[in-house]
Design a protein that fits this description.
Two copies of one chain form a homodimer.
Chain A: E1 2-6, H1 11-21, E2 27-32, E3 51-55, H2 61-67, E4 73-76, H3 91-111, E5 115-121, H4 145-164, E6 167-173, E7 175-177, H5 185-195, E8 199-202, E9 209-210, E10 212-214, H6 215-228, E11 233-238, E12 244-245, H7 246-257, E13 262-265, E14 278-279, H8 284-287, H9 297-310
Parallel strand pairs in A: 1-2, 1-4, 2-3, 4-5, 5-6, 6-11, 7-10, 8-13, 9-14
Antiparallel strand pairs in A: 9-12
Chain lengths: 319, 319
């Protein structure tokens, strides 16, 4: 099978590229504009004759349509993942998430490709009333431009499935971490502690609960779904049955780094406007397909810290 | 209060303009590109010194921002309402519904306007599992590009409410009919029967059930909500407790026109791809604010036929 991966030089995308290339029958085309993706993440893939890298933007429909030629399955992972900054540049989510997703679907149509996997988010549940939150939770009210733009993307996939005979696989992620993780709490804390191991300033009150899934477990979950789910539109929460508090993760990070910082808190239940104090997804549906995570949250945080320690270059700004 | 109405020369928009102008304390600015709006609908409004018409497109952010200056409340009714043709030009819903809604929100931000009423649709429920469908029905799967684009608009309003302190009033309409109604079943049937009163070809099997709300009842419902609802994001189904079959409406239309056409059917449960065989909304929430419809569906259909008979010019193509 020949796969096309938008955002394939990013955290999720490059892990998927490697995972697919591990199966000798697969070919992979990565399409990435390197706005946040890193060429280093594709170091192994680039040595593989079954791998092709195309540098391009999802907003460039013509280039993406050309790059997609001959592919059979599209993973659309490219996105503005800068969730917290939505209000500072509201057009970014519209452009890079909603319009880009439309372009991916149109490029597929031009190439007669009918299967797509899409990285959505647990943020589409807004502040869920039902926790753990199942896929058919009550119709949510959006609380962030990021969530709204991902929901818009989900809607487009579903409408194309109905109107053009696509099969859509929509993954509502909790926070993912692990090798190549380059944004979010654990990254920020490691970066701050690298600069100054004696103190740590925490957004919110530290009691924000988070459910993290380890990236390699996430990859297996995605493959389980695209190989077993049978609907036109297949929507799956991807997460784990555990959760931790931000404070727990600070403990694991500090232990791993061998530091003991003095903590101070911004206060409040939310780390930022539109932050959700608790995203905890019901994952019965994906488990019913036979998948289960192998790593605990503590494992995942520790593997992430190990990766960041071994790869300090990821902390360096590139501009 | 000074109101800004996008799509104010359309069916819903022009009815709202007249309704607001009937209250002497209101001023109204209508913004419309006349792609489907009709200058004739504003005949009365144009005589009113409290009324201003600005011809412009919602995709022209600068022009819309200028036109909105000094307004205090925005009704965003401009949309691609050509629900059935989504698959023939999929970018139309994205542009005219999703991106246009983003522009409206941005124009408001530039003018420091914080209250917005938005015409969404019962189509956002996809093929609802719960009927009558309440606002907090299970998280739906989209079945049309139109529904998906309106859901994207809802998400944007909600995210702006959370992020920028807007108050959003989101109306999920069933089919609306009445004076100035110019698309949908009743319009199409009247047009066909005007051309040839002896026969009528019906999309689907005629058993598609529809719940129509009379436009003047719809206007009162909207005003009831914006004057009484108290949340940041106020989502209200607007519909009636009745429904009819397409065949019933054909009976009322034929009776009113004094014709007896031979009926033939395309067959199938759906009139077109993405058509929903039954949109029937639970309207307890809006009724709890004290509103109730005055017209029955039969009344609404008959008033519509009367309007179309008295205004045959609405059938004329304008291109």
């Amino acid at each position: 099978m020949k796969y096309f991966i938008t955002g394939g030089a990013g955290f999720i995308g490059s892990n998927m590229a490697d995972r697919l290339l591990a199966e000798p029958e697969n070919e992979v085309v990565v399409y990435d504009n390197f706005s946040t993706g890193r060429r280093e993440f594709l170091e192994d893939a680039l040595k593989n004759p079954r791998f092709t890298l195309v540098e391009g933007d999802t907003l460039d429909l013509d280039a993406m349509t050309k790059a997609m030629a001959g592919c059979e399955f599209v993973f659309h992972f490219a996105a503005n993942a800068d969730v917290r900054m939505g209000c500072e540049h509201p057009s970014k989510d519209l452009q890079q998430n909603t319009i880009a997703t439309f372009n991916v679907l149109e490029a597929m149509r031009a190439n007669d490709i009918k299967r797509i996997g899409f990285s959505s988010t647990g943020s589409v549940y807004g502040e869920a009333e039902v926790i753990p939150t199942p896929e058919d939770a009550p119709f949510p009210i959006q609380t962030s431009l990021y969530g709204a733009s991902k929901l818009a993307g989900e809607g487009l996939l579903a409408a194309y499935a109905e109107g053009f005979g696509y099969t859509a696989y929509i993954f509502r992620f909790v926070s993912i971490l692990g090798e190549r993780y380059t944004h979010g709490h654990v990254f920020d804390f490691c970066k701050k502690l690298k600069d100054d191991p004696t103190k740590l300033y925490v957004l919110g009150n530290g009691h924000q609960r988070k459910s993290y899934l380890y990236v390699k477990d996430c990859m297996e979950a995605i493959l389980t779904v695209i190989r077993n789910a049978k609907e036109k539109v297949n929507i799956y929460n991807l997460g784990t049955d555990e959760y931790c508090e931000v404070n727990d993760s600070i403990g694991w990070i500090s232990e791993k780094l061998g530091v003991n910082p003095e903590l101070s808190y911004a206060g409040g239940e939310r780390g930022w406007i539109g932050d959700n104090p608790f995203i905890y997804l019901d994952t019965k549906k994906v488990r019913s397909l036979g998948w289960e995570p192998k790593a605990t949250i503590a494992d995942g945080v520790k593997k992430t810290v190990e990766y960041l320690q071994a790869n300090p270059w990821v902390f360096e700004a590139r501009d």
